[in-house]
Amino acid sequence: MVFLFILTGILFCPKNLSNELFLxxxxxxxxxxxxxxxxxxxxxxxxxTNCFGGLxxxxxxxxxxxxxxxxxxxxxxxxxxxxxxxxxxxxxxLRIGITTSKKVGKAVKRNHxxxxxxxxxxxxxxxxxxxxxxxxxxRTRTAYCKSYEVEKFMRQHLTQLGVIH
Length: 165
Description:
The chain is an alpha/beta fold. It has 2 domains: 2-48, no CATH class; 58-160, Ribosomal Protein S5, domain 2 (2-Layer Sandwich), CATH 3.30.230.10. The chain has helices at residues 2-11, 19-39, 43-48, 64-73, 107-124, 147-160, and strands spanning 58-60, 75-78, 82-88, 94-99, 132-138. The chain has a 5-stranded mixed β-sheet with strand order 1-4-5-3-2, with helices on both faces.
Protein backbone atom coordinates (compact mmCIF):
# COMPACT_ATOMS: atom_id res chain seq x y z
CA MET A 1 0.00 0.00 0.00
CA VAL A 2 2.83 2.40 0.88
CA PHE A 3 4.58 1.44 -2.37
CA LEU A 4 1.47 2.50 -4.27
CA PHE A 5 1.52 5.92 -2.54
CA ILE A 6 5.19 6.38 -3.33
CA LEU A 7 4.63 5.39 -6.95
CA THR A 8 1.79 7.89 -7.31
CA GLY A 9 4.00 10.54 -5.67
CA ILE A 10 6.72 10.03 -8.26
CA LEU A 11 4.21 10.40 -11.06
CA PHE A 12 3.07 13.77 -9.68
CA CYS A 13 6.57 15.10 -8.93
CA PRO A 14 7.02 18.82 -9.67
CA LYS A 15 9.53 19.52 -12.46
CA ASN A 16 11.81 21.77 -10.40
CA LEU A 17 12.51 19.06 -7.73
CA SER A 18 14.67 16.02 -8.27
CA ASN A 19 12.88 12.69 -7.96
CA GLU A 20 14.99 11.61 -4.96
CA LEU A 21 14.32 14.80 -2.99
CA PHE A 22 10.63 14.68 -3.75
CA LEU A 23 10.53 11.01 -2.79
CA UNK A 24 12.02 11.82 0.63
CA UNK A 25 9.59 14.69 1.20
CA UNK A 26 6.62 12.68 0.02
CA UNK A 27 7.40 9.63 2.17
CA UNK A 28 7.89 11.86 5.22
CA UNK A 29 4.53 13.45 4.51
CA UNK A 30 2.85 10.07 4.10
CA UNK A 31 4.39 8.73 7.29
CA UNK A 32 3.19 11.81 9.14
CA UNK A 33 -0.35 11.44 7.78
CA UNK A 34 -0.37 7.68 8.41
CA UNK A 35 0.88 8.10 12.00
CA UNK A 36 -1.62 10.87 12.70
CA UNK A 37 -4.53 8.75 11.50
CA UNK A 38 -3.49 5.63 13.40
CA UNK A 39 -2.72 7.47 16.63
CA UNK A 40 -5.66 9.81 16.28
CA UNK A 41 -3.51 12.76 17.27
CA UNK A 42 -0.64 14.86 16.02
CA UNK A 43 2.99 14.16 16.80
CA UNK A 44 3.32 17.29 18.95
CA UNK A 45 0.54 16.14 21.23
CA UNK A 46 2.12 12.72 21.59
CA UNK A 47 5.46 14.25 22.61
CA UNK A 48 3.83 16.55 25.16
CA THR A 49 1.97 13.89 27.09
CA ASN A 50 3.61 13.38 30.45
CA CYS A 51 3.34 9.61 30.59
CA PHE A 52 6.61 7.92 31.45
CA GLY A 53 6.24 4.33 30.34
CA GLY A 54 2.49 4.68 29.93
CA LEU A 55 1.65 3.12 33.30
CA UNK A 56 0.61 6.19 35.25
CA UNK A 57 -0.15 9.72 34.16
CA UNK A 58 2.28 12.24 35.57
CA UNK A 59 1.35 15.87 35.58
CA UNK A 60 3.61 18.78 36.31
CA UNK A 61 3.23 21.23 39.16
CA UNK A 62 2.79 24.66 37.63
CA UNK A 63 1.15 26.94 40.16
CA UNK A 64 3.19 28.91 42.67
CA UNK A 65 0.70 27.97 45.39
CA UNK A 66 1.41 24.25 44.92
CA UNK A 67 5.17 24.82 44.90
CA UNK A 68 4.93 26.79 48.14
CA UNK A 69 2.76 24.11 49.76
CA UNK A 70 5.33 21.41 48.96
CA UNK A 71 8.22 23.60 50.10
CA UNK A 72 6.63 24.48 53.45
CA UNK A 73 4.72 21.31 54.38
CA UNK A 74 6.74 18.61 52.61
CA UNK A 75 9.82 16.74 53.69
CA UNK A 76 13.15 17.51 52.06
CA UNK A 77 16.48 15.83 51.47
CA UNK A 78 19.70 17.38 50.17
CA UNK A 79 22.61 15.95 48.20
CA UNK A 80 25.45 17.63 46.29
CA UNK A 81 23.58 17.35 42.97
CA UNK A 82 19.93 17.58 43.94
CA UNK A 83 17.41 18.77 46.51
CA UNK A 84 14.17 16.81 46.75
CA UNK A 85 10.89 17.90 48.37
CA UNK A 86 7.93 15.51 48.62
CA UNK A 87 4.48 15.53 50.16
CA UNK A 88 1.75 12.90 50.08
CA UNK A 89 -1.53 13.99 48.50
CA UNK A 90 -5.08 12.65 48.58
CA UNK A 91 -5.62 12.41 44.84
CA UNK A 92 -4.21 9.41 42.99
CA UNK A 93 -1.77 11.03 40.59
CA LEU A 94 1.92 11.75 40.72
CA ARG A 95 2.93 15.36 40.10
CA ILE A 96 6.47 16.62 39.70
CA GLY A 97 8.06 20.03 39.48
CA ILE A 98 11.63 20.89 38.53
CA THR A 99 13.20 24.14 39.66
CA THR A 100 16.48 25.57 38.44
CA SER A 101 17.55 28.99 39.61
CA LYS A 102 19.88 31.38 37.85
CA LYS A 103 22.62 30.32 40.26
CA VAL A 104 22.88 27.09 38.25
CA GLY A 105 24.08 29.02 35.21
CA LYS A 106 22.78 30.47 32.01
CA ALA A 107 19.88 28.98 30.05
CA VAL A 108 21.88 26.16 28.46
CA LYS A 109 23.13 24.89 31.85
CA ARG A 110 19.68 25.21 33.42
CA ASN A 111 18.05 23.28 30.57
CA HIS A 112 20.77 20.62 30.73
CA UNK A 113 20.15 20.24 34.47
CA UNK A 114 16.40 19.86 33.89
CA UNK A 115 16.99 17.24 31.20
CA UNK A 116 19.27 15.27 33.55
CA UNK A 117 16.63 15.33 36.28
CA UNK A 118 13.85 14.31 33.89
CA UNK A 119 15.94 11.43 32.50
CA UNK A 120 16.75 10.16 35.99
CA UNK A 121 13.11 10.41 36.98
CA UNK A 122 12.00 8.49 33.89
CA UNK A 123 14.27 5.59 34.90
CA UNK A 124 13.04 5.56 38.50
CA UNK A 125 9.34 6.13 37.85
CA UNK A 126 8.24 2.48 37.44
CA UNK A 127 9.22 1.79 41.06
CA UNK A 128 7.20 4.69 42.46
CA UNK A 129 3.78 4.87 44.04
CA UNK A 130 1.20 7.45 43.08
CA UNK A 131 -0.36 10.24 45.14
CA UNK A 132 2.74 12.35 45.75
CA UNK A 133 3.81 15.85 44.82
CA UNK A 134 7.56 15.92 44.27
CA UNK A 135 9.79 18.91 43.54
CA UNK A 136 13.38 18.53 42.41
CA UNK A 137 15.66 21.54 42.77
CA UNK A 138 18.81 21.59 40.68
CA ARG A 139 21.99 22.72 42.35
CA THR A 140 25.06 24.29 40.76
CA ARG A 141 26.77 20.89 40.54
CA THR A 142 23.82 19.26 38.76
CA ALA A 143 24.94 20.41 35.33
CA TYR A 144 28.34 18.81 35.91
CA CYS A 145 27.08 15.51 37.35
CA LYS A 146 26.64 12.38 35.29
CA SER A 147 23.11 11.08 34.80
CA TYR A 148 23.77 7.94 36.84
CA GLU A 149 24.89 10.10 39.79
CA VAL A 150 21.71 12.16 39.65
CA GLU A 151 19.67 8.96 39.41
CA LYS A 152 21.52 7.45 42.40
CA PHE A 153 20.86 10.51 44.59
CA MET A 154 17.25 10.72 43.41
CA ARG A 155 16.64 7.06 44.21
CA GLN A 156 18.15 7.51 47.68
CA HIS A 157 15.99 10.56 48.37
CA LEU A 158 12.76 9.00 47.15
CA THR A 159 13.42 5.81 49.12
CA GLN A 160 14.04 7.77 52.33
CA LEU A 161 10.91 9.84 51.73
CA GLY A 162 8.80 6.70 51.22
CA VAL A 163 7.87 7.34 47.61
CA ILE A 164 9.71 4.23 46.37
CA HIS A 165 8.80 0.97 48.05
